[in-house]
Amino acid sequence: MTNSVVDRPDYWLVIDLEATCCSDNRFPREEMEIIEIGAVVVEGSTFQPLDEFQAFVRPVRHATLTPFCTGLTGIQQADVDAAIEFRAAMSRLTIWMSRYPNAIFCSWGEYDRRQFARDCEFHRVAWPFENQHVNLKKRYADRFGLKRGQGFGEVLRKHNLTFEGRPHRGIDDARNIVRVMPIIFEA
Description:
Layout: E1 11-19, E2 34-43, E3 49-56, H1 67-73, H2 77-81, H3 86-97, E4 104-107, H4 111-123, E5 133-135, H5 136-143, H6 152-158, H7 170-184
Parallel strand pairs: 1-4, 4-5
Antiparallel strand pairs: 1-2, 2-3
C-alpha cells in the first residue's frame, strides 16, 4: 500500500468512504466502521468517469448510528439496517472492480485506505486492491507546492467549483474528487 508515482494507468479507482462516527468519544476512532462505499472508475488518460459503485454497509461494532453521524452524512439508520454486511459489500466491490483490471486505488488523503485496512482486518477479508494507493490530497499539495494538503472544500473553492450533491456522502464525494483530477494531473 504505497503512495508511489503513477504516470497514467488504464483506470483510476476513486473511492470515498463514510464510517460510523461520534462527536463525544462514545467509541474509539479505531472502532469506526464503513457504512458507505462510493467509487468511480475513471479513464486513465482523459479522466472521464466510466462507471460507479455505491453500497451501504451494515456496521456491527456500533450498529446504531449517532445523531452526529446521521447529521454529517445524511445516512439514516434505516439505510444501514437494510444494508449488506462488510464481507458481502467487499465481494460486490471486488466483482465490480474486476471489470477494470489494474485500476489504481486513489482517495483524498489516507483516511479511506486506512479505514479499508482496519475493516478488512476486523472482518477477515482479503485486501482487494493492488499494493498501490495514490493519495490525491498529497498529489494536489505537491502539484501546487503546498507544505500540507488542503481540505477538499477549500480546493473546490480555489478552482471556482461548487460541490455537487451532498458532502460526506461517499458516492457524491467520489464524484467530486474526480472533477479535480484533471487539475491535479494537469490534463
